[in-house]
Amino acid sequence: MSSHSTIYAYIGTQTDSTSEGIYVYRMNPDTGELEHISTTAGGINPTYLAIDPSQRYLYAANTIEGEGLISAFAIDPSTGQLTFLNQQPSGGSKPVHLIVDQTGKFVLAGNFGDGSVCVLPIEANGKLGVMTDFVQHTGSSIHPTRQLGPRVHSITLDPGSRFAVAAEYGADQLRVYRLDADHGELKPGIVPSIPIEAGSGPRHFAFHPNERWGYVINELSNTLMSYDYDADEGILRLKETLSTLPSDFTDRSNCADVHVNADGTFVYGSNRGHNSIVIYAIQPDTGELTLVGHEPTQGKAPRSFVIDPTGSYVFVAHQDTDNVVAFTVDRQTGLLQPTGHNIKVPMPVCIKMISLPQ
């Protein structure tokens, strides 16, 4: 990262209460403090965000009932501020997650409301084109209210953007697709569906930067599962399953987000209820996980968190207490330490960060 770069944070929110859309902040690299720059109206519930590899465009999933929308914005390279470009339908109900492929040609989105995934092409000016593919999932599982039918909670591309993993929350499966980058289509993988223990509720997936391992965090069972990953064939093989909660915790909690740091040395997950970030060390040779500890997040329902581009800070967004809390990261131990910086943001759902040369 250039010494003359500025780090910006983009926070997607639910607009059910006082939120006005997408909140833009500038990060102080010395302290981790976030300074509010602007707020952009992003339509109804611009919750989950994704930024293209060129860092020129931002895309937001508008989580609404009926047919959802995906919104496109241009990022001002000198100020970090957003300008609305256009919207396209997501093809399904309540899109809650999206990602841009490494070429910057496509947005892939997952619809939670009806359990479907879609592909939208990105035009030369950053606007979204008409959908090039749509896949409707089927299936259900054992939870009496949350798993009555298919519900896609995320879709994640591997580091090479060759294969996508959809966390099929409603049917307790990981669905693997090969991305046809010539036509913007999703083709079933060699092993297209990987079952997960019934009632788990797979939510978010993260690949290790070495493309050898992957991790899924399960909302309902409060577990993290690690996989060996064959990047040539797009095949996942279960390695181990670990609890995200302390053994003596008996109250209700539900997992949310999961991230691997850029060095590939630690994986972090968020617990809503226990209100903590769980930390695991990744063994460099085998990818096996060792519990490091749990860090209280100083808020309720830590739905999303992000590791900043320098790897020095973690920012945790609390949907139920309308705040974002900053932590420093110990690169050697993986442990987090509160910085004392705590900003108010109404119903934050997702944080994304970029570093722009100035």
From TrEMBL:
Domain of life: Bacteria
Matches recorded under PANTHER family: 6-PHOSPHOGLUCONOLACTONASE, 6-PHOSPHOGLUCONOLACTONASE-RELATED
Signal sequence range: none
Protein name as catalogued: Lactonase family protein
Family in the record: Belongs to the cycloisomerase 2 family.
